[in-house]
Amino acid sequence: MSCLPLLILLAPALGAIAIAAVGSTRHALVRRISVLATGLSLIGALWAVATYDAPTGGYQHEVLVPWIRSLGIGFHLGVDGISVVLVLLHALCAFTGVLISYAIKDRVKEYYLFYLLLITGVFGVFLSLDLFFFYFFYEMAVIPMYPLIGIWGSDVKEHGVVRFSKEYATMKLTIYLTLGAAVALIGLLWLYVSSGAGTFDIPRLQQHFVTSPLGMPLQRAIFPLLFIGFGIIAPMWPLHSWSPIGHAAAPSAVSMLHAGVLMKLGSYAIIRIALSLLPEGAQMWLPWVAAICVMNIIYGGFVAMAQKDLKLTIGYSSSSHMGYVLLGIACLTPLALDGAVLLMFAHGLMTALAFALVGHVYDQTHTRYLPDLGGLAHQLPFIATCGVIAAMASSGLPGFANFVAELLVFLGGWDRYPAAIVCGVFGVVITAVYMLRLVRGTFFGPRKPVFTHVQDTRTLFARLPYVILVSALLFVGCWPQPLLRLIDASSRPLVERIRPSVALAKPTPERTLRRLPPPRPHPAPSGRQGHP
Amino acid sequence: MVISPSALGWTILLSPLAAACGIQLFGVHRRRLSATLAIGALLVSFASTLLWYTFSSIVTWAVPNPFQLPFEASLSWISLPGLTISFGVLIDQLSLLMALVVTGVGSAIFIYSTAYMADDDAYSRYFGVLSLFAFSMLTIVLATNWIQLFMGWELVGFSSYLLIGHWYAKPSAAEAGKKAFMVNRVADFGFMLGILALWAVLPVDRTFHFQTLEKQLPLLIQTGVVSVAVLPLIGLLLFCGPIGKSAQFPLHVWLPDAMEGPTPVSALIHAATMVAAGVYMLCRTFWLFEIVPSVLTTITWVGAATAFLAACLALVEFDLKRILAYSTLSQLGYMVMALGLGGAVAGMYHLTTHAFFKALLFLAAGSVIHGTHEQDIRKLGGLWHSMRWTSLAFLVGGLALCGFPGLSGFFSKDEILVLAYGHNAPAFWLALVTAGMTAFYTARAWFIAFTGKAHGHGHESPPAMLIPLGVLAFLSIIAGYIGIPHFLGQHGEHHAAWLVPGLSIAVVAVGLLLAWLIYSRGTVSAQQLVQALALPYSFLQRRYYIDEIYMWYVETVQQRWIAGACAWVERVIIIGFLVNGTARLTRRAGHILRLWQTGRVQTYVLGFLLGIVSLLTLALRR
Q1: In whole angstroms, what separates CA A42 from the centre of its chain?
Q2: Hey, is the C-beta of A511 within 8 angstroms of any chain B C-beta?
Q3: Helix B320-340 with B408-423: angle, nearest 10 deg
Q4: Which of A492, A522, A527 sits opposite B222 (nearest CB)?
């Protein structure tokens, strides 16, 4: 029994309760409570990462409180190497998001209340080891998005004409995600009923399936339900269209969490539930998933290229980059899965940074429409620097975590789906096109007189969220081994359980390098010898 | 104090990085501190490289010299079962020479920059990025494996992007930076695939490590574990990297535009070091390319074509920096061709001398721009009188570039010509013609800009700019005599044939003479020449229309057609039809189903009645 997951989960929950009790005009207090709550979670998450014992592996820091014994429901928290990294990602995004939310001036109390509820829900998903609570927290994360976008969001405009209203965006997002959740719920209940184990507990279900695996037809039938249900939030092509619009309409701190973390709930759920409980079903369906991922990457990239709204561009780029995550999962090799999880982390931070930056630009200039912007590096040197950093991280520049993650996906997937990997590598080129265009159009060019009043972030406090996100990206990018060790400790056993053949990492040919047979009389390669 | 070889090696690599971090953290508003940090760190790097070189050449007895070449020190960067990637320093003759060039020429250019950029607002940013560049370049030079090389490769591209766009307020500079990054990205797409494919071709114990691969690949091919059939493809993919970075045809388009950056940047990055990284990479991994002759042939022709086509472009250019840029392209073509002909040593030799004289030419051009604020040679003239030292430097550099006998360029170019003469006759003649054209366009720039009538006044540049010019001029003169090929391991083999040097001197003389007749004596009018050759002239003026074709692809095909089509599918089909259509369908269904529960008793009674009537009719019919 460990109190660490409880601390991480309960800090924002108690924060939300405390905010509910505070008078609605006491903005400073509300903000301080939020910073404190998410700060505590962040410390807890860092502690969990530091203390997770990779050589032992498995679930650690477990908390188990039986709840409804007859149905086998228990309040079971814990982390493994994959979820602990995502908890850290969420803690970072939540903490910086709370700081970025200082820009919110309207109905501050209600905003932070919903925001902390959202944060609690996401922590809950990453920490839950019980299907019932997993689902409970999943819904809890989705619902606060509705008021957050509907009340504090903004319309997507082109030439000053509304293209999507925030009401449309929030309605679409909520319906889409609820629909996904409903589909997944069918799958979960079917799984629960047909398992015969009478428990919602994920580790126990896993053990149960080792001894008495689910029949092949059942696995094949349930897997798509779970995959599509959770894939909607990932967001998987062609069910992705809620996401860029949702990003664009949401206030920046909500976009940060939404693109940074919420999307990762889908891919995490696929790994945690669909892959680990339905291994044979996964094996059958994943080649199709790889094909869909290519659509995500290439199609999403091209649509992003055609956008003129900053947030829509980043939104579509997120859907493109989540294609790499899903591709890494679909490859089902330890390296690719490591890459996928690390990419969730890297992309989460990068996209949170990007939305925070766009938020600042929008606050100052009141526009996100690319043709209206330009030359902002003159007025916003700090923001522009971070903008270049975010663009470079996004296009996979070495030194940032995204590069390591994408490289691992490519290396791990090369033997499985070379064609998809080639498309993935090409996607990096597409990313560079729109990201550079964004940076060029927003920050570079001559100084525009309209923007003379525009203010850079001046205080260290205002710069803190950006500094945290950039340093985390750089730190992991330069020294990925600590996180990779954790991820690998959990992803490798998972892949080995699904595909026992890869347990040996590679098909062992008769000849290995160390035991070379005597060279056959073989004509030497008729290469031109080097010039002396 | 005992200096350990690995500590010295790491110092070479890491001190510019430390400077870059220091400037970013503490130097943003402190101009002097930034410059001092950047220059100091690079000098430390230079000194360490020199020390390494000195120690490695000491012959020790009894105890083995710890500074034995090749030397490798590395740290594990990623280590997972089935994947090990390390980050380290590999020091051998090749990397020592290249590191000396990078840090030595780099130091001169850094010092020059203090004067050239003195009035710039973003002085600290400039030096910060320059230090980052030095670190990235050294990462390539000292790389122990493909991934490290690729990381440095991308990072030099990034620093080049920042430095080309240093004056980002100028739209042309911002666009040029973007273009350079994009073109390199396209090339790196192939490069990355090549690295992946090479890694995957090994059945077990996959590795990126150069020295391991160098040892094992021939064995694996001999035993048939690795099939020779896939290697040409891998070689071609890997060669995509140098095509982008060393700006070979057809991806050369970014380099002339890169001249938008400050001139010291053009000298360091776009002449002496970064663009030579492609050639360096080919030398570093020559063990791979030499087992695939078909790829070598391709490399030869790409290089020869680049050398010739770029020299043609330089003939009609009027921008002083762009003339030099085309000449850089052309010389890079020579180096790549040398590699294709199997001459890694000749390629590296030319790379080194080129680094000296081309950096010298660019810095001299920078001094001209600094003194006159003009870079169109038609508006320059008579600089010989107003800027004597600068002109002298340009003259030395120009003659070395032409291959004037006795200067460094002569020797290194000669090596390449000899090589071509022995292996590939058509390439040899192409290269020979190119040598004549090189002499012509260099002399053209000289006669128009430096001799003749003076336009306006120029003032000579400060010592901080002239001293680096002097150092580089000295190096350009002597680099042919200090035994660089010998250091790289080429022994003996003095070509007795004097046919090749004789021919090359002859074409250079012809080129110089023609330029003198046209641009100095005026015996032949340049105007009339242009009119006589109007069609090829305009074709060259428009740079073979390659930029237009790329522009058309990027703006029309990619942006408007492909991206536009995807956006249309997204807006109309996915959102408009599928998503909103489903919503509309739901709403319609709701409207229809609503009629079942209107809440009006009359409707219900009517339905009730109709039901009874229909039931009764059914019953009575029976």
Answers
A1: 17
A2: yes
A3: 40
A4: A522
B402, burial (CB in 10 Å: exposed 0-12, middle 13-18, buried 19+) = buried
Q: How far apart are CA B412 and CA A277, in angstroms?
A: 66
Residue that is written with structure tokens 């919110």 in the block: A104
Instruction: Give the one of B78, B225, B343 whose C-beta lies nearest to A480's C-beta.
Output: B78
pLDDT tens readout for residues B229-255: 888 999 999 999 999 999 998 899 999
Segment holding A66, helix H or strand E: strand A60-68
Cβ distance B563 to A377 less than 8 Å, yes or no, reads no
Instruction: Return the number of other C-beta atoms located less than 10 Å from residue B120's C-beta.
Output: 15
Instruction: Give the H/E segment covering residue B355.
Output: helix B344-372
Could you report the per-residue pLDDT of B253-280, keeping only the tens digit for each?
999 999 999 999 999 998 889 999 999 9
CB contact under 8 A, B222 and A512: no
H or E element in which residue B90 lies: strand B83-91
Select from B82, B344, B575 the Cβ nearest to the Cβ of A241.
Answer: B575
Nearest-CB residue to B290 (from A306, A513, A527): A527
The DSSP string of B29-61 is: T-HHHHHHHHHHHHHHHHHHHHHHHHHHH----
Query: What is the rounded distance in angstroms from the CA atom of residue B438 to the CA atom of residue B315?
Result: 9
Please tell me whether residue B246 adopts helix, strand or coil conformation: coil
Q: Which of B161, B39, B142 is nearest to B91 (CA)?
A: B142
Is the pLDDT reported for residue B39 higher than 60? yes
Facing residue for A302 by CB, picked from B162, B491, B562? B562
Which tens digits make up the pLDDT trace of B366-396? Answer: 999 988 888 888 888 788 888 888 899 999 9
Chain B contact for A488 (CB, 8 A cutoff): yes
Scanning B214-253 for CB atoms below 8 A from A yields 216, 218-225, 228
Residue B397 tokens, joined? 């550099």
Contacts of B185 in chain A (CB under 8 A): 395, 428-429, 432
> Residue B101's closest CA among B405, B404, B408, B370?
B408
Q: What is the CB-side half-sphere exposure of residue B208 using CA atoms within 13 A?
A: 27
- pLDDT at residue B494, as a whole number: 55
Write down the pTM of the prediction.
0.91
Q: Do A528 and B342 touch (CB under 8 A)?
A: yes
Task: Return mean pLDDT, chain B.
Answer: 89
Amino acid at A272: R
The tokens of A334 are what? 């330890």
Question: Residue A201: which of A329, A336, A77, A19 has the closest Cα?
Answer: A77
3-state secondary structure (DSSP) of residue B74 = strand
- For residues B558, A303, A364, A380, the Cα torsion angle rounded to the nearest 10 degrees is -50
Distance CA(A516)–CA(A526), nearest Å, equals: 22
**Domain residue extents for chain A:** 4-512
How far does the CA of residue B381 sit from the closest CA of chain A (Å)? 32
pLDDT mean over A278-286: 86
| B419, burial (CB in 10 Å: exposed 0-12, middle 13-18, buried 19+) | buried
CA atoms of B438 and B432, how far apart (whole Å):
10
Evaluate if residue A269 carries a pLDDT over 70.
Answer: yes
> Is B539 an 8 Å CB contact of chain A?
no
Closest-CA residue of chain B to A525 = B291
B495 touches chain A (CB under 8 A): no
Residue A214 to chain B, least CA–CA distance (Å): 30
Q: Does A324 reach chain B within 8 Å, measured CB to CB?
A: no
Residue with tokens 């030395």: B396
Contact between B461 and B370 (Cβ < 8 Å): yes
Beta carbons of B204 and A307 less than 8 Å apart: no
Portion of chain B with pLDDT greater than 90, in percent: 51
Residue B15 to residue B11: CA distance in whole angstroms: 6
Chain A residue numbers with beta carbons less than 8 Å from the beta carbon of B154 are 397-398, 403
